[in-house]
Model the fold of this input.
Amino acid sequence: MLRLKTLKLICSREELMALPQRKLLINTINAHSYNVAQTDELFAAALKGGDALIPDGASIVKACRWIGAASQPAERIAGWDLFVMEMQRLNDRGGKCLFVGSSEKVLSLIRERAVADYPNIAVETYSPPYKPEFSEADNQRMIEVINAAKPDLLWIGMTAPKQEKWAFAHWSELRIDCHVGTIGAVFDFYAGTMKRAPLWWQRHGLEWLYRLLREPRRMWRRYVVGNVVFLWRIFKER
Done:
């Protein structure tokens, strides 16, 4: 089980920028992932056991204030914000970035766009097989790809909680020395295969509503039911 009241979070962009440049696992948390972690022990362990956890959701920021949590984030920091910050910093010094996850179509669009946006970054990609659970051979292949690439920045995008659990379970096998971010939908946002909410919706903490309106059949359970469950659980924490 995950308790927001005692969870250590990154509280500002300045704190995120100040993380040391070494092997670090950076995850995100929002209302949905908080809910899932209440019944998924490995996911809860992955979120608590990573090196940094950023509040990717206005609901998390507000809940921390309401319950008097140990961490008091000053702002929402989306997975997209992490992505842009890390990519720009790597582009400034030059290096290699590896994207692991999603489809080959999405990865090819990422490679195309990155050439223009980040000319000083050599981008490599790997699309793991689409299946509910990876075999031992699948896991070993991903580990080999990552270790052979020796990236200066690694992104894992296989949707939550799969991506967080995979990175956490295989962390000791990854012989790398860089930041690793589990950023899910950011792969699609950057590729342009999924549209992110306009800035007004983001600033007012309504990005979830924008996604619900665009994909009601797929998202209604996560946001309509999930938000009520989140509020109830936060009420109990208080």
Remarks:
- Residues 4-191+230-237 form one domain.
